[in-house]
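agent> Task received from the user: take the single chain below, predict its 3D structure, and emit structure tokens. No templates, no multimer pairing.
agent> Plan: (1) validate residues, (2) run structure prediction, (3) serialize to tokens, (4) report one or two observations.
agent> Step 1 OK, no nonstandard residues flagged.
tool_call: predict_structure(input=
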Amino acid sequence: MLTAARPFFSSRTNITLLGQARRQTANGLKPTSSSSTALAQHQHRLFATSLNRAQATATSQAQASILKPNTTAATRSIPPALPNKTIKSILTTTEPDTVVKVQGWIRSTRQQKHVTFVEVNDGSSLKGVQAILNGGQGKGLVAGTSVELEGTLVKSLGKEQALELQVSNMKVIGHCDAETYPLQKKRHSFEFLREISHLRSRAKTASAILRLRSASAWGFQKFFESQEFVQVHTPLLTSHDCEGGGEVFKIAPRISARAQQLHEERKGANQQSLSESSPSSPGPAPSEFFGSPVYLTVSGQLHLEIIASALSRVYTMGPVFRAEPSMTPRHLSEFWMLEAEIAFLDKLDHLLDFSEACLRETTRYLLETCSEDIEFLNTWIDKSLKQRLTQLVEEPFKRMTYTKAVEILQKSGEKFEFEPKWGQGLQSEHEKWLAGSYCKGPVFVTDYPAGLKPFYMRKNDSSVVSGSDDRTTVGCVDLLVPGIGELMGGSLREERPEVLKQQLKDFGLGEEEYQWYMDLRKYGTVPHGGWGIGFERYLLMVTGMDNVRDIIPFPRYNNHCKF
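)
tool_result: status=success, residues=563
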């Protein structure tokens, strides 16, 4: 790790320090009956001590000035770059009796004899603004219409809002066909909203989820920034299956008939050249654009390990893909992963501490900044949502080993569909019971059997092999949360070259193919570890929703890929 270097002092600094040392030495001398030699030695020692103290103080001040953030840049307010304010900004920063302009879509209308009440929303907040149109201004307005309203913001006489807009001018930007518009002022089922996913973001629940999704991403980024991490953009195309499950999408170009014909002609010409001892080759077939098989990524972890070997603390957030035909409410073919990799990490508990802090601080950020949306979801989706999120922020996560978890499951008396046994993976029913019924909150389960986990996880030094009973475990962790099961998975990575080499062999992976991975251990290996969080599963937790297809804007799953 980085060690503070001894600072270089200028001649002016040295003179100042010498003066400080002399003054401190003079203050420290007291009359004594010793000989002049003893007095000189005593004075020299005091002088040296005072000089060292002065240098240490200067070093501390110099380092503080270097490490102190630029508070001016951090607190500088960025001026608006667009001409119009959002409805959220208008309602939170504008004084009553101010003339404002509002743009948005009509969510609902209520017409009376001489006045029309219109709720207009632009997506920046949950409720939008209530606009009052007098006379015949509101005639013919229907839900879904896009409008621009200008008027005076006044205090509301109603209980539902503090301010409302007294409209003086109205402009219809885009008309809406009321006969066919599917979103009306009533509750729609989530199944119905999935069928009109190009319009469902206008519904209250969907828009609240999208705002929470955005705030969650920003909350994670703020946490990583506070811990001095560097964000890395890992590739979507990869030549490796990180998880080793084989459930990957293979990339193949769409080849036109003309391109295929040209390839065949070139191939024939090259074969003729080869017969004449020419070194030319026909090149890869059109179906192998990159010259070898390439897949959509299932994880950015291996790429993060490369960068962590130079930058120490890195993270990435982006889409990943799995060709898993599962149709459960927890699975998608395209979803987002938040992944972190940390160098110089040699204890699993430190990884758990970091993971817990990350989730705790991000969730705290949501409670502080998205209270309106969380309150809405707590009212209409899950009435225990706020209580669970508050518990997550305030109470420490529980921890247990895989071995202990299996023992608890076996003694629980519960009738599980799959019998819990050591050496077998925990099923979803086991995970949900452990987190929901037994721990009643998040729980880290650590040290799984090596045979259940990928090749790169570090084998525990305390693993036991007795005859045919192989109890080898790896330093890994799964975080289980109520109602969802597994939220996060991570581990210490195998940094010992000889152990990793054997792991590749045991898993049937070619050492030549993973030579680059071995090189990271060959050239300055360090203990390191990391984890990945399924972003959509985190959103299930903080929204109270049941189906992962409802918290991603454009869900992709088996037999479904619209737009």
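agent> Step 4: summary for the user.
The two ends are 49 Å apart (CA to CA).
agent> Done.
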